[in-house]
Amino acid sequence: MKTIQMTIDDELLAEVDHLTAALQTTRSAFIRSALQLALRHHAILEKEQQHARGYAQHPVAPGEFDVWDAEQAWGEQ
Fold it and tell me: GO biological process: what's one of them (predicted)?
């Protein structure tokens, strides 16, 4: 593990300190977790954009998924 130095504004640091105390964790652990979540979020956004580009380049053809229409029946309610 590496030690880093970072700049953070006072209000954000106060919020982090308040929450880490409530969660009984450390700043470092909290920030590591937040960074991991941010990286996962970014990866998901990239996949969603890739998915959208794929459908824009190769749109669904009319009738392409009609075979699945019967599978969507949930019965009478």
Answer: regulation of DNA-templated transcription
Q: How many domains does the chain have?
A: 1
Model pTM above 0.70: yes
In a domain, 69, yes or no: no
List pLDDT tens digits, range 6-17: 999 999 999 999
Is residue 70 in a domain?
no
CB 31 within 8 A of CB 16: yes
Task: Write out the two tokens for 67.
Answer: 């075979």
Supply the range of the domain harboring residue 44: 10-58
pLDDT digits (tens, 9 = 90+) for 36-64: 999 999 999 999 999 999 999 999 899 88
Could you tell me if residue 67 is inside a domain? no
End-to-end CA gap in the chain: 57
